[in-house]
Amino acid sequence: MTVTIPSAGPRNAPPPPEDDLRRLLLIRHFELTLLRLFEAGELSGTTHTCLGQEYVPVALAPLLRDDDFVFSNHRGHGHFLARHAEPYGLLAEIMGREGALCAGVGGSQHVYHRRFLSTGVQGESLPVAVGAALSLKGSGALACAYIGDGTWGEGSVYEALNMARLWRVPLLVVVEHNGIAQSTPTRVQMAGTVAGRAAAFDVPHHRTASTEITEIRAELAPLVGRVREKSLPLVVEFATHRIGPHSKGDDTRSAEEIALAAGHDWHTRYARLLPELFDRLDREAAELVERVAAEVAARPLSVWERP
Asked: 3-state secondary structure string, the chain?
């Protein structure tokens, strides 16, 4: 079953509140700083940024409650910072420094902090989210799981949806559909649609192509409320665009494809819409993340990272 709410279109949507802009820009500069730190050789391993997709978790943030569980994935820094404005702890975790969220053992992809859990294993979080949602039945809380279009190649997704519908659990599945699974375009690796696959399990589905935060919230608020009240799963699909590489430098898309994605960037649009306010907030966010990076880099290694 597909749930559709008519959209007024982004031209009629009011600009996002200042707090939302601050959170968007915090995530943007956090991600850009991570790429810079890797280029400078100050980080090891890998990381996956959400450049261009920051608006998704920021739009959802006020629709989620403190007693909800949030399950993230390998591209999860924005999911975390939209829920917990704790850039010091997150960067310390990625850099393996004191003050890290998980003592530096989780790194970029595996974070556990106050009902927020992320994993780098595709499809792993959804069955766990179903179990969490089952434990939340009747409480009004829900489990929210972020996955990508590439995750629909995992069998665990379908086992989880089957159980979620049979058991009637309050599960919100957020699909960030950016059209490419690492280096493989979705059109050549996924048959059918996300809506069709959800329908196979009688799970309601809603798709939005909007990147306007206020519009997205207006669309999703009653649907998320229904997940809580009726204890039923829901798949929300965002048609979004990744403007950065898959991880820290491996972008296999053509220059034209990258330019097309960049044309949908909220950063450019809001900078034109609110020039003075946006410019000030952008500078403040850049300065904040610069301070965070300098302070965290000066900390000793976490106990688990020491030689």
From this structure: CECCCCCCCHHHCCCCCHHHHHHHHHHHHHHHHHHHHHHCCCCCCCCCCCCCCCHHHHHHHHHCCCCCEEEECCCCHHHHHHHCCCHHHHHHHHHCECCCCCCCCCCCCCCEECCEEECCCCCCHHHHHHHHHHHHCCCCCCEEEEEEHHHHHCHHHHHHHHHHHHHCCCEEEEEEECCEECCEEHHHCCCCCHHHHHHCCCCCEEEECCCCHHHHHHHHHHHHHHHHHHCCCEEEEEECCCCCCCCCCCCCCCHHHHHHHHCCCHHHHHHHHCHHHHHHHHHHHHHHHHHHHHHHHCCCECCCCCC
CA 248 to chain centre: 17
Whole-number Å distance between alpha carbons of 290 and 163: 45
Which pairing describes strands 116-118 and 112-113: parallel, antiparallel, or unpaired? antiparallel
Domains along the chain?
18-297 (3.40.50.970)
Residue range 225-269, pLDDT digits in tens: 999 999 999 999 999 999 987 888 778 888 888 888 888 899 999
Pairing of strands 112-113, 69-72: unpaired
Rounded Cα gap, residues 162 and 112, in angstroms: 26
Give the global pTM: 0.92
